[in-house]
Design goal:
This protein is an alpha/beta fold. The chain is 33% helix and 25% strand. It folds into 2 domains: 12-97 and 149-245, P-loop containing nucleotide triphosphate hydrolases (Rossmann fold, 3-Layer(aba) Sandwich), CATH 3.40.50.300; 250-336 and 421-505, P-loop containing nucleotide triphosphate hydrolases (Rossmann fold), CATH 3.40.50.300. Keywords: ATP-binding, Cell membrane, Membrane, Nucleotide-binding, Repeat, Sugar transport, Translocase, Transport. One of its GO terms (cellular component) is plasma membrane.
């Protein structure tokens, strides 16, 4: 089975699907086709309704109206099991395998081959896993436990499971967010092989370079509605961005020119055995300094140690000339330092608490009277900051876990900005959020620098580093190997330094 011929109907069609949660319409009248032998991108800002469509296809949500048409027949899914039985598989950003079972057992879960007397046929299980991995062109030991597999390998196991269950439609929801470049290339090779065998692939990503590399068709959503569906050859990236955000995005990196002031953050000789060594740098008021480098170079570990979350073996951190107590995030906060971590779900937010409680957590003592948190003050402060950051939500009392990824990022920023920090450390500030929200986060960072805040940023996105930083510190194997001023920072100069191909002094 190869790519679907023009004129033939779609393998799966979303027709006029609407879904509301209370008064909030998550999607309204959304329609688009998925063809066999094609990869179809669905793009839009956070909150555009992409995740709701995924959950409708996966059988998690039933649409309020509209229908799904599979191979020409209307279908209704009352559960994820029914969607899987119909041949629809969803590969999430973070798969959920059974960690204590083997890779092979995870692949055949729910359809174990059996031999005489109903005994599970373990040889057949292993043979099935080996056959599927060979078909996908990957090498993973079927006998090893799922626990400890990388995210990339877990996703491959999920794809093998879908293939073994004869899935015809593969939905990939932000699958590359936590992968390295090499892992992304392997995942795409697998996706192309399945596409060319005749599977219909729905691909959700915020990375336009991935969309253009893998997909043949693109559907754009905005505010829960369908905007357009086109062959990818008929639409440019600039046009996709305009349709997504409903306006021209004049400046993704709205960097203001600011004359830096006095040194606010000083780091001298910071070391941690086996992780980083002899890290020294400074950040001045009004300055944005970016850490660049390859994954594993030690950037995040350095800023965690600067903030006092992680231990360090040697070195000194000063804020406005005052030496901070090591391994004490409380001391860092008291000195006016704030950290927006890379993993906002695990380290930046308490997902079951309300939006307003998350925003005001660091200031709960200041907002309390006689040891009791005053709800009115909490709500007023949360409303102020969520409005400033243009956060989209239903009610401030809603759990923060109900928000889209971009809006969760805004809540993390609001939480720390409410403290009026002197030093703001942001680790991967726009990872996993859409292009419109990226522009808003960049605007905010630039405005804070203009107000005199010293900003230290870690980013794996070179355009972000080049567009926002006054200086770039390039790390390689736990050391700073180059310091590049904005005027001389290019993709080549940063990457050459990061890969050890002639550091720039």
């Amino acid at each position: 089975m190869g790519r679907q011929e023009p004129g033939r109907g779609p393998l799966l069609e979303v027709r006029g699907v609407s879904k509301s949660f209370g008064a909030v319409a998550a999607v309204a009248g959304v329609s688009f086709p998925l063809y066999a032998g094609e990869a179809h991108a669905v793009v839009g800002e956070n909150g555009a309704g992409k995740s709701t469509i995924v959950k409708v296809l996966a059988g998690v949500h039933r649409p309020d109206s509209g229908t799904l048409v599979l191979a020409g027949e209307p279908v209704e899914f009352g559960s994820p099991a029914e969607a899987k039985a119909a041949g629809i598989a969803v590969i999430y950003q973070e798969p959920t395998l059974f960690p204590d079972l083997s890779v092979a057992e995870n692949i055949v879960m729910g359809r174990h081959p059996r031999r005489g007397l109903g005994m599970i046929d373990r040889a057949a299980i292993r043979a099935e896993a080996e056959r599927l991995f060979a078909r996908l062109g990957v090498r993973i030991d079927p006998a090893r436990p799922a626990r400890g597999l990388s995210i990339a390998d877990q996703q491959i196991v999920e794809i093998a499971k879908a293939l073994g269950a004869d899935a015809r439609v593969l939905v990939m929801d932000e699958p590359t967010a936590a992968l390295t470049v090499v892992e992304v290339e392997r995942l795409f090779a697998v996706a192309r092989a399945l596409r060319d065998e005749g599977a219909a692939i729905m691909f959700i990503s915020h990375r336009f370079e991935e969309v253009t590399e893998l997909c043949q068709r693109v559907t754009i959503m905005r505010d829960g509605r369908h905007v357009s569906t086109d062959p990818l050859t008929d639409v440019t990236v600039d046009e996709m961005v305009r349709r997504m955000v409903g306006r021209d995005l004049d400046a993704l990196f709205p960097k203001q020119d600011v004359e830096p002031g006095a040194v606010v953050l000083e780091v001298d000789g910071l070391s941690r055995e086996g992780v980083f060594r002899d890290i020294s740098f400074s950040v001045r008021a009004g300055e944005i300094v970016a850490f660049a480098g390859l994954v594993g170079s030690g950037r995040s570990e350095v800023v965690q140690a600067v903030f006092g979350v992680d231990e360090r073996d040697a070195g000194v951190v000063r804020v406005n000339g005052r030496k901070l107590r090591p391994h004490s995030a409380r001391a860092a906060m008291a000195a006016g330092m704030a950290l927006v971590p890379e993993d906002r779900r695990q380290q930046g937010l308490v997902m079951d608490l309300s939006i307003e409680r998350n925003v005001t957590l660091p200031r709960s003592r200041a907002l309390s009277k006689f040891g009791l948190l005053v709800g009115r003050g909490e709500r007023r402060e949360a409303l102020d900051w969520t409005q400033r950051l243009r956060t989209k939500y239903g009610r401030l009392s809603d759990a923060v876990g109900t928000l889209s990824g971009g809006n969760q990022q805004k809540v993390v920023l609001a939480k720390w900005l409410a403290m009026a920090p002197k030093v703001l450390i942001v680790d991967e500030p726009t990872r996993g959020i859409d292009v419109g929200t990226k522009a808003e986060v960049h605007r905010l960072m630039s405005a804070l620098a203009a107000e005199g805040v010293a900003v230290l940023m870690v980013s794996s996105e070179l355009p972000e580093v080049l567009g926002m930083a006054d200086r770039v510190l390039v790390m390689r194997e736990g050391r700073i190997v180059a310091e590049i001023p904005r005027a001389r920072a290019t993709e080549d100069s940063v990457m050459f330094a990061a890969m050890g191909q002639g550091a720039v002094a």
